[in-house]
Design goal:
Layout: H1 3-10, H2 14-28, E1 33-43, H3 72-84, E2 89-94, H4 104-118, E3 122-126, H5 132-141, E4 145-147, H6 166-179, E5 182-184, E6 187-189, H7 195-206, E7 214-219, H8 236-249, E8 254-257, H9 266-275, E9 279-281, H10 294-303, E10 307-308
Parallel strand pairs: 1-2, 1-9, 1-10, 2-3, 3-4, 4-5, 6-7, 7-8, 8-9
Helix pairs in contact: 1-7, 2-8, 3-4, 5-6, 7-8, 8-9
């Protein structure tokens, strides 16, 4: 989709916009279902990258301690609890630049993927940069989707990260697509970008082939010690407009209301769901940032008459007409 088309959608009068996005949502998804995803940091801190939003970068004094990679046994135990709590998708994130074939840590991650896949859950990982061989290995081990956010527009990206390029992100996404894994790719808003930057980011996503299977929309959680620790909260109406525009532009993608929900009211979250969001991270912690508690989320979903989406491990979610349309935020 071209930028001018996205701008025209985004600038539609507010109630007309969310009315249209609701119609698109209902045409492709069951109206009362939300996918519940659990995100686990399997290797925390000490990352060599300088992403300005991330508390796990070794370049910033954020108080996040460097930890070793969790064992497959420990990861499996968390995944089992997540499944018991209602999550159907288990996402594993590691704070490092990327993975390489033959590295013992990568072999350990592959074993963890195999174990989680055997639980009947969708498996998502975010491990940084990937080559073609590593992508195939992850696919063969049972990964459903690979998360690799583009974060922001190509123009704004160099002001957020300097240790890798926007093209590096696209190269990894290309390897993921070639392997046959689904792509989970979105961005982070509230990093000093303009609304136009957000639409330019969305323009890139809409031109992926195939399109993203899921699109996380993260609101920055300012982390003390990072360059972006004083950024103000995102305006709720701008967030809802972006979700609605994403839903219209990518009707078959899961649109995930991701990091930053602790800064949103219950009413604000309800507007996001109405506009087309149909996936959340579920549990009281993301990688290093706070998230609404399980009981709070259950109460909110009950209040809105929303139910957990059934698990699916193929390209087509059970009970919907959605096919495959297409690092998680700390």
């Amino acid at each position: 989709m071209k930028l001018r088309d996205l701008q025209a959608i985004y600038e539609t009068p507010f109630f007309d916009l969310i009315g249209r996005s609701r119609e698109v949502y209902l045409a492709h998804w069951k109206m009362n279902e939300v996918q519940l995803c659990t995100l686990l940091s399997i290797k925390t801190g000490g990352c060599s990258e300088d992403c300005g939003y991330c508390a796990q970068s070794a370049r910033y004094n954020t108080g996040v301690e460097r930890e070793t990679l969790m064992s497959p046994d420990a990861i499996e135990a968390v995944a089992v609890r997540a499944r018991e709590n209602g999550s159907t998708r288990f996402c594993m994130g590691a704070a490092w630049k990327g993975v390489r074939n033959g590295d013992p840590r990568f072999e350990s991650v592959l074993e963890s993927v195999r174990r989680v896949a055997k639980l009947g859950m969708e498996v998502c990982v975010t491990l940084g940069q990937l080559g073609e061989k590593e992508a195939v290995q992850l696919k063969d081990a049972g990964v459903t989707a690979y998360n690799h956010n583009i974060d922001t527009s190509p123009e704004h990206y160099p002001s957020i990260v300097s240790t890798h390029t926007f093209q590096d992100r696209l190269d990894t996404i290309g390897h993921v697509q070639k392997s046959g894994m689904s792509v989970c790719c979105g961005g982070i808003i509230g990093m000093g970008e303009t609304e136009l930057d957000r639409l330019k980011m969305l323009e890139v996503l809409t031109n992926f082939d195939p399109a993203p299977e899921s699109v996380p929309i993260n609101c920055l959680m300012p982390m003390p010690g990072t360059p972006l620790d004083e950024q103000p909260p995102v305006d709720i109406f701008q967030l809802v407009r972006l979700i609605a525009t994403t839903r219209i532009a990518l009707p078959r993608a899961k649109v995930r209301l991701s990091a930053g929900r602790t800064r949103l009211t219950r009413e604000g979250q309800a507007l996001c769901f109405f506009a087309g969001a149909n996936s959340i991270f579920y549990g009281d912690k993301l990688l290093t940032a706070a998230n609404p508690g399980v009981n709070d989320d259950r109460a909110l979903l009950d209040e809105l008459n929303l139910k957990p989406q059934p698990v699916h491990t193929g390209e087509h979610p059970a009970g919907s007409e959605c096919g495959t349309a297409m690092a998680c935020l700390s």
